[in-house]
Amino acid sequence: MKIESVKIFVSCPDRNFVTIKITSDEGVYGLGDATLNGRELAVATYIEEYCIPSLIGRDPFDTEDIWQYFYKGVYWRRGAVNMAAIGAIDIALWDLKAKALKVPLYQLLGGKSRQQVLTYCHAQGKTLPETMDAIRQKAELGYQAIRVQSGVPGMKSIYGIAKSSKGYEPAIKGNVPAEECWDTNKYLNFAPKLFAAVRKDFGEDLHFLHDSHHRLSPNEAARLAKELEPFHLFWMEDAVRGELQEAYRHIRKNSTTPLAIGEVFNTIYDCQTFITEQLVDYLRMSVPHTGGFTHMKKIAALAETYLVNMAPHGPSDISPIGIAANLHFSISINNFGIMEYMGHSDLTNEVFPHGYVLKEGSLYLDETPGLGVEYNEKLAEKYAYEKAFLPVNRKEDGTMFDW
Ligand code: EZ4
Ligand code: CO
């Protein structure tokens, strides 16, 4: 079999998505998710200009060699745009191979290690009572694990909280990024009160998670992790930005609150110290942003050796194709923890019809060969790309800060 054509689609069915379609000379095709929130056209152009010509004529089953070709062969390594491009190509090739062999994709990854994939959803509110209501609603839907983000008294806007009633969506349409304003002290004083209230109302049974979104110093993170200990979080996410992996030693030494990191990582070299020093409990890399199945399988194997679990990132800016990739990965590995699932709008789901279904907070795959997701090209054509960005963040005195 040979790769005959590769196409890139950029569309905006409520939010932007980049989709790759690789078709073989036998008419079998595979789909991949190349969406990188706020940098969509960079990945699309990278694939179009620099990858497609080298893919034409290749055997689509040679996933390992094609991965090495685009990683080692390119000289300029790592990086979000590069690895999202490689990830999309890799996912599409595995989808194609599984379809050609007429098996669900997870069968190529070792089969099923469990029957369903446990997910967590988001509950958020501008105030504490609104947040408590949101948690109640999610618990009633049967979710067993809920990420809790709340507005902080004295802060105008904050990561994770919807500005309108339409639900939280991190990307904001416009020509330049919106700006948010941050005060660490207000956040640190409020977060323990939030989780004290949550445990008091909801008891011990539900799993609660929280995302600090890369805004704390190692010592601030240690303080918060310690103060949250009595409330037994499932995890505290992205306490400190992850470029300096050694920074987590201090948090680890000072608290037993489980730690998670990795949604912005894209290679094994972003997490090898986290893994080998057991500095975190969960790695949040996603299949589409981390070079696809070929690379994620290797990361999961290293993490398994050091008793670290995988917990893929699953926000709305990963398309249903990327979500399905995360699901096939999660169901097949032994060291799976939990997967984030924000869900998608009805329109997005219509553009990407899929077989996975959510029941009582877990996602179930069907037996469709490949990933089990389609791309409705005709419908997608009606929704042209609209530039949108993640916000940037400044401290109250104007200093540029981490978002
Ligand atoms: O900020 O997906 O845990 N989930 C998150 C997400 C990310 C966005 C970035 O595109 O932190 O909301
Ligand atoms: Co996060």
Architecture blueprint of SSEs:
Blueprint: E1 3-11, E2 17-24, E3 29-33, H1 40-55, H2 63-71, H3 80-100, E4 117-125, H4 128-140, E5 145-150, E6 172-173, E7 179-182, H5 184-202, E8 207-211, H6 218-228, E9 235-237, H7 248-254, E10 259-261, H8 272-276, E11 282-283, H9 292-305, E12 309-310, H10 320-332, E13 339-340, H11 346-351, E14 357-359, E15 362-364, H12 377-381, E16 388-389, E17 392-395, E18 400-401
The structure holds (2S,3R,4R)-2,3,4,5-tetrahydroxy-N-oxo-pentanamide and cobalt (II) ion.
Cobalt (II) ion binds at residues 211, 213, 237-238, 263.
Which features would summarize this protein structure in a list?
403 residues; alpha/beta; Enolase-like, domain 1; TIM Barrel; 2 domains; three-stranded antiparallel β-sheet; globular; binds cobalt (II) ion
How does this model look, in words?
By secondary structure, the protein is α/β, with parallel strands linked by helices. It folds into 2 domains: 3-103, Enolase-like, domain 1 (2-Layer Sandwich), CATH 3.30.390; 109-370, TIM Barrel. It is built from 12 helices and 18 strands. The strands form 4 sheets. Strands 4, 5, 8, 9, 10, 11, 12, 13, 14 and 15 form a 10-stranded mixed beta sheet that branches. It starts with a strand and ends with a strand. Residues 37, 170, 211, 213, 263, 313, 315, 317, 340, 390 line the site of (2S,3R,4R)-2,3,4,5-tetrahydroxy-N-oxo-pentanamide.
